[in-house]
Amino acid sequence: MSLTDLHLSIDQRVVAIRAEAPDWLCAKGCANCCRRLAEVPQLTEAEWALLHEGLAALSTEHLALIAQRMQALAQQTTRPLTCPMLDEATNACPVYLQRPVVCRSYGFYARRDGGLYCSEIEAQVAAGLHATVVWGNHEAVERELAGMGEVRPLTEWFARWQGEADGGGFPC
């Protein structure tokens, strides 16, 4: 399965869940997951290539802010983490169309043993508000990602890209 096919599969699951539960918490303006990362997201090479396109299209000023946040994130030892790409004022993602799979699937796919679920949605499900929703299987998503190239933390991909921009010579 290609990354595009995986995105389409996830998008279909999201549409189905939203159709079943129109009041689902994950929607434009909600950035709870972006502000509560347990770890720095791990991206495959294919995901990074797509995200790189989105980042490269940002203004120099916006990219400089993200670079500062990436550097801080790489050194942060406390949890939770906040996504360095999150626009704090709007709770929006400037690279939404190129966002990684973990961002596309969070809140719609579950892996409770790894913390890949939203505690607010979990509380609503436990209260019986979304009893009919069948969550996606995040392990299946991870299996599909496994063949999509080398895996590195987002901060490392970004630092390597910045090194290339500074003459470091890392090929993306």
What attributes does this structure have?
two-stranded antiparallel sheet, 6% strand, disordered C terminus, 4 strands, mainly alpha, globular, two-stranded parallel sheet, 172 residues
Listing every helix as H and every strand as E from the N terminus to the C terminus, the arrangement reads: HEHHHEHEHEH
Strand order of the largest sheet: 1-4
Largest sheet: 2 strands, antiparallel
Q: Percent helix among the residues? A: 40-55%
Topology, number of strands: 4
Q: What structural class do helix, strand and pairing data support?
A: mainly alpha
Overall mean pLDDT stands at: 87
- Rg to the nearest angstrom? 16 Å
List the topology elements:
Layout: H1 3-20, E1 42-44, H2 45-56, H3 60-75, H4 101-105, E2 109-110, H5 119-126, E3 136-137, H6 138-145, E4 151-153, H7 154-165
Could you explain the architecture of this structure?
With 172 residues, the chain is mainly alpha-helical. The chain is 46% helix and 6% strand. It has helices at residues 3-20, 45-56, 60-75, 101-105, 119-126, 138-145, 154-165; strands spanning 42-44, 109-110, 136-137, 151-153. Strand 2 (109-110), helix 5 (119-126) and strand 3 (136-137) form a beta-alpha-beta unit.
